[in-house]
Amino acid sequence: MEGMRLTTTTSAANKTGNLFYITVRSDGLYAFVEESQLYFSFNTSRYKEGNDSTRVIFRNGNLATLWYYYIKLPESNSSQYMRLESDGHLRLYDYDFPSATWTMAYDVMRLDDCHYPTVCGEYGVCTGGQCTCPLENNSSSSYFKPVDERKSNLGCTPFTPISCQEIRHHHLLTIPNVSYFDLSPTVVDATSIDECKQACLNNCSCMAVLFRDRSVSHGECLWLTEVLTLHSIQPETTGYNSTAYLKVQLSPSGENKKKLIVGATLGAATTLVLLIIVVTLYLQKRIKYEEKDEEFDFDQLSGMPTRYSFQKLSESTEGFSRKLGEGGFGSVFEGKLGEERVAVKRLEGARQGKKQFLAEVETIGSIEHINLVGMIGFCAEKSERLLVYEYMSRGSLDRWIYYRHNNAPLDWCTRCRIIMDIAKGLCYLHEECKRKIAHLDIKPQNILLDVNFNAKVADFGLCKLINRDQSKVVTMMRGIPGYLAPEWLTSAITQKFDVYSFGVVIMEIISGRKNIDNSQAEEDVHPINLLREKEQNNELVDLIDKHSDEMVSREEEVIRMMRLAMWCLQNDCTRRPSMSTVIKVLEGAARIETFDADSIMFVQDNPSTYSAPSQASILSGPR
């Protein structure tokens, strides 16, 4: 009906804050922005003399006045609706039954993109759909800057805001060959360019004027109190010339601009000098540190593994070209020393000095156990730190339990042996070494397998060493989401941290699923959550790896192993078993302690599943 409005506001991304609306008047349909700026109209009086269009009706295929159709729209067999969008477009939507979605079928206004008021925001200039800030013709001076460098459609803003108190320093910036969308602008009584410009300079509310001339003797001066998007024109096509004059604020005598330039120059020079000083001091300190570090003689340490030169290890790995994998501490490469195949780990970002590094190598090199990957040698030259390990031909455990390589399922005896091997390796680190060692990164990627599927724990040499008289160690945690025990948030870590991770790995070996499986439905993403639920409902059999018929047939043994995993997954670390107790259970010499399934950490309540401090390792090749 006449006088009624269809209104919308711009989106949050459009910072102009303009308001669009469409209204019906006696002579047609009109679209405005900011109350008074007309950018679109259906003037029905042009089509039928004396027509009184006090009503506009939307019917399938047509947008009509009461008496006469003027706009032909695409017909549809489904439902349709029109919506005035936040960008000023009036769009027609059809309902698509196969996809059960509404799809845009037609842009009713059919204006050129550059003719919409906010397509380039305030003060933006639209040329062929591209947005730029105004720049005076034949001038390198810029008075406007983008609101957002990455989003040119958000418009531009003056470097210096317009001040009515400084009206004598107002200046009009000449932007030739541009026009404005407003179909009903305020026309100022001025027939020459000079009169048009002076009228704007004399009134502070005027933000810009446009001067249009169709002939030498006739011109039209259009007054703008707010400047939205300007659009470029080609006079030979439009049949008239149009030039915009945008009001900008100048600094008195250019003093402020000069001060700004001088200040910026001095600031940049000062920053550069400080940067040079900092870099110089850093380099001097590093050179002095390396010179002092090189003075340390590794022969002072007895029982060291073999020391190799960096050149030797580079040659043995063919220039570090045969990568087996990479993880949080560096990359692993296949190499050959004589007739022996080896795995060379090149540590990245190592900040420790040579003395500290060699002391750790001495400790790690002295550890020998059938279920720990053995260290053969090392390299420490300048900033290079490398470790040489025995080669494990079947790679890491994850490639065998997740079925990524279309491998046959492991039999139950092999899985049990792998679990036992992991337990023995961790037990040695926790209870039998001269210094207690908490691994802190137990996961299938760090369990390596030899040709006979014997398992060995890897990367234990990069963990935190704990003195025998310490019960806990406070350390910066590393690891992968889902394997971190809940106590990692407190940073007070004991060997029971590894017991939790060990419980997660047991469940992965039994179920053949990752501990966080985003390919599953939302409620099944975390198998540990399912473990709680299935235990409470006496449905643990549902978690057995369905790839293995043998495991299904040995349901009782598999469920007993699951209950061992649940014991290890207790939220309270003091209630988890030691690794020596785990071994006794696996050997049948001890029973699993009874517990309530509710005491298992619910995974979504465990922040470790959301914000682990470092990225997961990706180590699945043989090494």
Number of strands: 33
Question: How many separate domains?
Answer: 5
Strand content: 25-35%
CATH fourth-tier homologous superfamily of the largest domain = Transferase(Phosphotransferase) domain 1
The outline comes out as elongated
Topology-level CATH name of the largest domain: Transferase(Phosphotransferase), domain 1
The amount of helix comes to 10-25%
How are the strands of the largest sheet arranged?
A: 22-26-27-25-24-23
| Tally of separate helices | 12
Report on the biggest sheet.
6 strands, mixed
- Based on secondary structure, the structural category is alpha+beta
| Average pLDDT rating | 79
Distance from N terminus to C terminus (CA atoms, Å) equals 79 Å
**Which spans have pLDDT < 50 for at least 5 consecutive residues?**
464-477, 604-622
